[in-house]
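Now for today's protein:

——
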Amino acid sequence: MKIAFKRLDHIMLCIPPGKEQQARDFYGGVLGLEELKDLGYPLPNGAIWFQMGDIQLHIRAEEGHDLSARHPAFEVHDLEAARTVLAQHGIQFKNESKIPDRNRFSFRDPFGNRIELIEMIAKD
């Protein structure tokens, strides 16, 4: 028997304590995500939640945050437009190795979390 995964529901990324406003500025301002403030219940552990397409992004302060290759990968409609937005904000990005049927790159948020963006290549 296997677990029948349906879709990605949410990602949680950690930030250093006291950097909540900077997270709001980056994820809400630079990336343009909608912050979810009233879900009808208190958000656990002081988390900040954003809507990102059909999933949620949860941000929570946590001690001991180190750089890592761990990351969420998000499919986008227009990878070059995303690259332009990040470049306009001075965000550096890294072109990742080639994967068949997709283009991709990654970047780090202000807290060192690695985020990958992917655009599927249309098959002829």
